[in-house]
Amino acid sequence: MARGSEQYTKELYRQADRRAPSKALSPLRALMPFLAPYRGMIVAAGFALVAAAAAALVLPAAVRGVIDHGFSAEDAANIGRYFLALIAVAGFMGVASATRFYLVSWIGERVVADVRTKVFSHVLSLSPSFFETVRIGEVLSRLTADTTLVQTVVGSSASVALRNLVLAMGSFVLMVVTSPKLAALCLVGVPLTVAPIILFGRRVRRLSRTSQDRVADMSAYAGEALNAVLTVQAFTHENLDREKFQRSAEGSFAAAIQRNRMRAALTAFIISFVGFGIVVVLWIGASDVLAGRMTGGELSQFILYAVFLASGMGAISETWGDVQRASGATERLMEILSTEPTVKAPDNPVPLPRPAKGAIRFDNVGFRYPSRPEHRALADVSFAIAPGEAVALVGPSGAGKSTVFHLLLRFFDPQEGRILFDGIDIASADPRDVRRNIALVAQDPVIFAGTIEENIRYGRPEASAEDVRAAAMAAAADEFIRRLPEGYESLLGERGVTLSGGQRQRLAIARAILRDAPLLLLDEATSALDAENERLVQQGLANLMSGRTTIVIAHRLATIQRLKRIVVMDQGVIIGEGSHAELVARGGLYARLASLQFDEAKALAS
Ligand SMILES: Nc1ncnc2c1ncn2[C@@H]1O[C@H](COP(=O)(O)OP(=O)(O)O)[C@@H](O)[C@H]1O
Ligand SMILES: [Mg+2]
């Protein structure tokens, strides 16, 4: 395992390296479409930004005025007006800065909300094969941590950088105006500060991506462990998990520190070069003042502009790191957005008839799961089910029964053969159109956080309360629900009541009953029920099955014995078909399974 994670780390570094040559900030361009709708806000923020910077640039000139004239007696009358004007400038600067801050933060929050919504909505559309390769925790980390990075930049760093850029450029122009000679001298220093930004910047960005990947890695691990915390504790596995998490946390610490070391070096370079430059300029300037080539006010003004310029550059280099981190984050978000679902609607999907009849046909279907291409999950499977007919799928676990359902639901497309729904190849239909016609009771029913009623209504959000109750009754769930303290309003999920496996199955059945679709898929739907409840549910299911096509996967043969057609599968192929009596008479796998189960039951009964 340790070896595995080591290799994972290497893979991360390798990926980061591969991406390094791309222009540092180009991934941020992908944010443009998200910014475009707020053009007006951005222009307004730009105005506020320039206005605030312009007001700031007035101050050094004012200082020169005070130093060169302010202290002489003849100007005493003017001085009041002069300072009043400065107060107005300060007030204007305050309002403009606040406006800029508000507008820019607004844009940042807005863009991040849009990015989050888009990424989440996109992830929901992705095919199961995506979730087999990417861990849920990692997707969550991208949705939260990565988008927060983007928000920091769009909603603050970018405007800080821009404000300082305007301030720095304005300062530089005014430096030239104030003293061309000293300004030229400062120009010499610029390459000295810009070079390290470019040199270190690239590495900072690469390390940023690695560091974010490690954070994602860590939260994915925590998510896995916490989701299965009862299993972790039952196997007293806590210490091993602690160790693994710690290793993961240390990994992300190491990656972050490496990045920060780089940033620290960058900061050191810039600050010392700039400080050094200011001292040199001050020195030369002071000798110019002494020689009478410059007034004291002019030198003060020049130095103030130089300080603006320097602190502006400093701020830019600080935000540079954030911008690069956001660039890495954006890249990761765009990776998700550019992942196409492997199963998607064709350009011109063939509509299924409405209402659908529910005729099903498998024509020589062969299928391998994308994550296990060497293993044949289904081979040359052919069968047809007439509308309204009920068929059982039987076979040992791993036979491919659930896979048949996955293909019907178009979670995957088969590599060979085709599947017809009412005579239409489902590969040429919209997967959503296909799924709309299916009610599924999955092998491991999922309960969502919410009330019982909401959970049942999941199958048909517009159903009335009476419909929900009727469905619960048919699923033999009404009784246990009403015994709960808050009945149908009882909360389920993390902070709610916990249901037993059998109760969950009955909720799932009620959900499927309410969905009222022409094709019903039951995957071991009653496996967790005791005999008594199973008998109750069977009645509900029998009502439900009448008039619609049903495929039942059942482990306990007693539950499907009365169906006219039973299809027997083993290792991905159909090995027999017939009624219970026929199959038993024919011998083979089914007869063996039957004698095992029924003899056991007899033995128990006697
Ligand atoms: N998501 C998956 N990825 C890779 N292999 C899978 C996946 N789901 C099932 N399989 C494999 O496909 C075969 C058939 O599985 P399944 O249809 O679940 O069997 P059954 O429902 O009959 O027990 C098994 O060998 C199983 O390991
Ligand atoms: Mg199964």
Characterise this structure.
There is one protein chain. This protein is of the alpha/beta class and 606 residues long. It folds into 3 domains: 9-17 and 26-337, ABC transporter transmembrane region fold; 353-437 and 522-533 and 547-606, 3-Layer(aba) Sandwich (Rossmann fold), CATH 3.40.50.300; 444-516, P-loop containing nucleotide triphosphate hydrolases (Rossmann fold, 3-Layer(aba) Sandwich). It contains 19 helices and 12 strands. It has helices at 2-19, 32-35, 39-70, 76-125, 128-133, 136-178, 180-227, 229-234, 238-290, 296-337, 401-408, 431-436, 452-457, 465-474, 478-483, 501-515, 531-545, 580-586, 589-605; strands at residues 360-367, 378-385, 390-394, 416-421, 424-425, 438-441, 450-451, 491-492, 519-523, 549-553, 565-570, 573-578. The strands form 3 sheets. Strands 6-9-10-3-11-12 form a 6-stranded mixed beta sheet, with helices on both faces. It has a 4-stranded antiparallel beta sheet with strand order 2-1-4-5, covered by helices on one side. A two-stranded antiparallel sheet has the order 7-8. Helix 3 runs parallel beside helix 6, helix 16 runs parallel beside helix 17 and helix 18 packs across helix 19 (589-605). The radius of gyration is 35 Å and the shape is elongated. The protein binds adenosine-5'-diphosphate and magnesium ion (MG). Residues 132, 369, 371-372, 377, 395, 397-403 line the site of adenosine-5'-diphosphate.
